[in-house]
Amino acid sequence: MKTPTSPNLLHDPLIIALDFDSAAEADTLVNTLGDAASFYKVGMELFAATGPDYVRSLTGRGKRVFLDMKYYDIGETVKRAVRSAARTGASFLTVHAVGQVMRAAMEGRGDSDLRLLAVTVLTSLDENDVRQMGHQCTVSELVAMRVSQAREIGIDGLVASPLEARAIRALAGPEAILVTPGVRSQGAAKGDQKRVATPADAIRDGADYLVIGRQVTRATDPVAALASIRAELQTAVQAA
Ligand code: C5P
Question: Based on the structure, what is the number of domains in the chain?
């Protein structure tokens, strides 16, 4: 498990999700935000539309990239895919928290700077789904088992919903990188997200990085929306 430790704001904790289906749309936001944002999430939608060249274009402009690909395949394929992902210059990459997948990802990452984040149980899955998948345990027991296995394998960090951040931080230890999507400022539109926490709560509960999507990307003034989240975090840190 690697730096940074939590909670702190020594690094830029805000990762903006580029949930777009073209480089042109993504670039419109990146150019609008300019120096206000330093870290972007590229997920399956944008990656399928633009490929690794777009990731390289972001890293080439000095931006950090969280490649949210949630890899889950046979070991050899994962190893080779992670090796390719590392060559894009991305900082973070997600894989599912399944033993064989995580071990292969560690091999593929080798001694590159790419940090691996494990996704324990998708937040869209409930107790019933987990039972149907054949697990004889609750969602939180499965999350705990997977965090512990990720730790044993040496995965760098975890993706957690803000509501499970505190529990996952306790299980994963202080060194794990904890990234939480699903955050919303008080009063901001939730969209299809049901279980959200504020950015300040997520950081207080142990998150190192927050993935910010529509609250900034669909705002009429993205720069102002991002500035207001930063101000909110600053106030929370000063009050702590
Ligand atoms: O809802 P919002 O637009 O803020 O979502 C931002 C990003 O966080 C999206 O890319 C979404 O896929 C991701 N997300 C996630 N897990 C959740 C909620 C959101 O990975 N539980």
Answer: 1
Whether 204 is covered by a domain: the verdict is: yes
Tokens of 12: 């830029």
pTM, two decimal places? 0.93
- Point out the ligand 1 atom lying closest to the alpha carbon of residue 218: 3
Q: Measuring from atom 15 of ligand 1, which residue has the nearest CA? A: 181
The CATH number for 67's domain is 3.20.20.70
Instruction: Indicate which residue's Cα is closest to atom 5 of ligand 1.
Output: 213
The answer as to whether 3 is a domain residue is no
Pocket of ligand 1 (CB under 6 A): 17, 19, 43, 123, 161, 181-182, 191, 193, 211-215
Pocket test of ligand 1: the residue of 14, 119, 211, 218 to mutate, having most ligand atoms within 8 Å of its CB, is: 211
Q: pLDDT tens, position by position, for the chain (240 residues)?
A: 333 333 445 699 999 999 999 999 999 999 999 999 999 999 999 999 999 999 999 999 999 999 999 999 999 999 999 999 999 999 999 999 999 999 999 999 999 999 999 999 998 899 999 999 999 999 999 999 999 999 999 999 999 999 899 999 999 999 999 999 999 998 887 777 766 789 999 999 999 999 999 999 999 999 999 999 999 999 888 887
Residue 1 lies in a domain: no
- Which structural domain, as residue segments, surrounds residue 109? 14-239
Residue 196: inside a domain: yes
